[in-house]
Amino acid sequence: MSRKNIFAIFVMLGLGLGIFWWEARNINFESLITTIQNLNYFWLFIAFVSILLSYGVEAMVLHTLLKKKEDRKFGWWEMYRIPLIQALFNAITPFSSGGQPAQLVGLMQSKIDGGRASSVLLMKFIIYQTMVLINFIIAMLVSFRSVAQHFSGLATLIVFGMVIHLVTISFLLMVMYYYDFTKKMVQVVLKPILFFLKKEKRDRILQSAIKSIDSFYKESLVLKKEKKKVIKAALLTVVQLFLYYFVVYFVLLALNCDHVSIVDVLVMHIMIVMIVSIFPIPGGSGGAEFSFKTLFAGFVPSTSALILGMFLWRFITYYLGMFLGIIAVSKKPRISKHQVVSKSMERK
């Protein structure tokens, strides 16, 4: 891991501590201690299990899209470490932009061809974004009117987040179904944007963009023929998302908020995911905490419990992924040359 990445980790940890200190500065310390003592640790444990299972199911999604009959057997750590690496680099880069390239490096460390890995990761990304959008649309149909009525400011952010997801998915679908048009469009759009760069750098960026489009298109042709694989990956992604969404519900149960509606809580968490996606600060820091306080204040009986709940939820869904990601980056899979060579000989 580079010094720049290590510095980013410390910056985000410092920013997180600063946010929680600011939110908790006026809380009665004795009240906070009492809230901690009264926690239901069973449900807190279930919250941790839920997020770990979410990473596990995401690894299954990757394995489903990646696996071919002629491949060697992939070890569980090879697949499980990739979502953890993604969690780390999503957490320390603006708009979660570092997750995709970091996953690519992780797969290449497992001796998986870079072009193939890149294409599979793009397909995994479009499936994920599609499932997030579908869940969000369902959540809006269920409860958006209530959110818009009580939290008009957040309602605007929520809709903006949906638009960003929709544009992203639309572009990737255009690559799949309108390949030539999309390539030309990207060139037309990028050229004026990159006009002020040196010619060599401009050409390098354009070539990289076209190469990524070509790679994704080739993989999409293969996966369009394997509809069962895509459907299985989509269903697993839904399970992955709900394991993630359920974390906040389990945290509320740990705070002894037994009266909460599971549907309302899931809807609120889905909306937070949309809001966080539009904040350029890594991890949506600040926006995530503000959204949690705003949306869940009515579920939690006291300020100390609300702040503690925010801390627990944020640690489990954000900071835990960072710490596990550091382990995943440092603990590379052991792939012997014999495994790779023997499989390539079998294919011949």
TrEMBL record:
Cited function: Catalyzes the transfer of a lysyl group from L-lysyl-tRNA(Lys) to membrane-bound phosphatidylglycerol (PG), which produces lysylphosphatidylglycerol (LPG), a major component of the bacterial membrane with a positive net charge. LPG synthesis contributes to bacterial virulence as it is involved in the resistance mechanism against cationic antimicrobial peptides (CAMP) produces by the host's immune system (defensins, cathelicidins) and by the competing microorganisms.
Subcellular location, principal: membrane
InterPro entries: L-PG_synthase/AglD
Catalytic activity, reaction form: L-lysyl-tRNA(Lys) + a 1,2-diacyl-sn-glycero-3-phospho-(1'-sn-glycerol) = a 1,2-diacyl-sn-glycero-3-phospho-1'-(3'-O-L-lysyl)-sn-glycerol + tRNA(Lys)
Domain of life where this protein originates: Bacteria
Family, as annotated: Belongs to the LPG synthase family.
Bilayer topology: Multi-pass membrane protein
One Gene Ontology molecular-function label: phosphatidylglycerol lysyltransferase activity
GO biological process: lipid metabolic process; response to antibiotic
A GO CC term assigned to this protein in UniProt: plasma membrane
NCBIfam families: flippase-like domain
E.C. numbers: 2.3.2.3
Intracellular or extracellular location(s): Cell membrane
Keyword Electron transport: no
Protein name according to UniProt: Phosphatidylglycerol lysyltransferase
Coiled coil: none
Regions that span the bilayer: 5-22, 42-66, 125-148, 154-179, 233-255, 261-282, 294-316
Alphabetically ordered keywords of this record: Antibiotic resistance, Cell membrane, Lipid metabolism, Membrane, Transferase, Transmembrane, Transmembrane helix
The organism of origin for this protein: Companilactobacillus tucceti DSM 20183
